[in-house]
Amino acid sequence: EGGDPVDNSTAFNCTASCPAAYPYKHFPVEASKIGPYCSPEQIQSGFRLEASTTPMFLLVALACAIFLAFALCMVAMYCRQKNKKDAVKMTMALAGCEDSEPLRPTNVGPNLTKLRIIKEAEIRRGGVLGCGAFGRVCKGVWMPENESVKIPVAIKVLTEVSGAESSKEFLEEAYIMASVEHPNLLKLLAVCMTSQMMLITQLMPLGCLLEYVRNHKDKIGSKALLNWSTQIA
After folding, report:
1. When you count CB atoms within 10 A of the terminal residue's CB, does the N or C end of the chain come out lower?
2. Domain range for residue 18?
């Protein structure tokens, strides 16, 4: 141990590790003539034995960082999915049909080839949203038969339909409504043929446009009203 082996070749002592006074291990290029030796100075081709654990430490730190980043991503995705589920449940609560069973959003499109006729047992009516000349609209839940889902819907109960001829006309108009696709129109999901005909449509959790106009009439300009009127027409 100690110094240059060429200058001090008779003072060598084989050891398992370099002492503190000669911390750097040197591997000469001409290994056939001179074997590895310890030196007090760091040489370009040598390295400190105590520093040999640094690469392993860096690998462990890098692996931990990657694992932590992956865990954070998984937690973020879980929180995002949970927030979506909570939003759906909140919509149900606002609609007055809160339930702990699994839900599905109301973006269910109508069957454009066949009008879906459902049973009265598949729907559950809630509070009244509004009334008109042809009946009233209730909030509710549609539970399709043989499916474990609940869909928040608006149920339009018609009071003026009576007789076989009226029922036929009602179905023809309902089929046309189910075939219409427009961003400004609510989608018809199904119809229920009972003593009081019912149209099952998407539920708008923010309420109807009429109530919004009434509540914010002082804040709505003529341009917005004209635009809405054009869309409705």
Report:
1. C
2. 1-45
